[in-house]
Amino acid sequence: MSIIGIVCEFNPFHNGHKYLIDSVKKDGDTVVCVMSGNFVQRGEPSIFPKEYRVKSALMNGADIVLELPFLYATASAEIFASSAVKILDSFGCDKIAFGTEITTINQLENAVEILFSEDFDNKIKKHLESGVSYPTARQLAFDEYDCDCDISSPNNILAIEYISAIKKNNYNITPITVNRKGADYNDNFAINEFASATHIRNLINSGSDFQKYVPEIAYEIYKTALDNGEYINADKFNISALSVLRSFNDIKSEIANMSEGLENRILSAIKTSSNLDEIYDKVKTKRFAHSRIRRAVLSAIMNVTKVDLKIPVPYCRLLGFNLSVSSKLGELAKNCKIPFVVNYSDIVSLDSDDASRVFEIENKSSDLFNLSLHKTGNCSSEMTFSLIKMK
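RESULT FIELD:
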């Protein structure tokens, strides 16, 4: 009987996610998901509030859902993955499962050996000197080795970071790969009943039918969210974000994800842009990919600093669980290597500056998220978040 960890965004939960869980879960196993809250690694808000995404997961094979705090969920792939794996290890998981385009763990482990070697760093620096972006320099450096692994795929990037975190920290966690079904990560089309989360979000935002691509129970949950107006409104998010950005007289270089004058380029673009996409397009260069710029802009909005990103994960926060695993949850919570928290008062009782700062950012980000829903949500919702229990 294993405790299987899955790092996820479920933005939204779809058939591919259910396939992953069903592929690895056997009788007696407990599936623990570490899920991003109301913002995701692309530097954008999730389409549905986390409550709906937690319910969808718990009704489709997940047993326990923990939170990956905003601070780590919207960071680089390395910080995103290492923080999530730390939570899984602290909570007692002995396996981690993820979908990739690669068939064997050996291929990924070989890639890890290459990517974290001193020789590889030197090759990256050589390519960066030619003026290409970091992702391009990284790929060009990797291509110089004899390794059959696509390190540009979003899923493979994260898989490599998961394995790296396990190796660096000597975690007793075994990685399990599951071949992805159907469309790739960012494909805006479907293959049979499998569609990427990107395609499903586009269908939802355009008012098109997406029922075929998500489990039946998840569809009913999402329909409730849509009927209640509890889904993200891109126009409202633009206005809410721009209202903060336009108040800036400057952006400090100490803000997370800023380097090489990126903060000045962003500040200049803010003054002449009417939406976030305009800012991203004006700031983009060979050096800075859109994802990096989105995260930098979001960090500026939230006043997240480079010092903040160095805060070790201060707690393990429970978002929801199935009542059938109550006794197992109690055991795992009792033995958790970092403080296990359920509500705001638990975090306050830790009397920890790090925990208070991580939660402060979480609460602030959810305020922005709630302002951006079709039906505006409440302020300080993180302080009153209700634990989700499913039968």
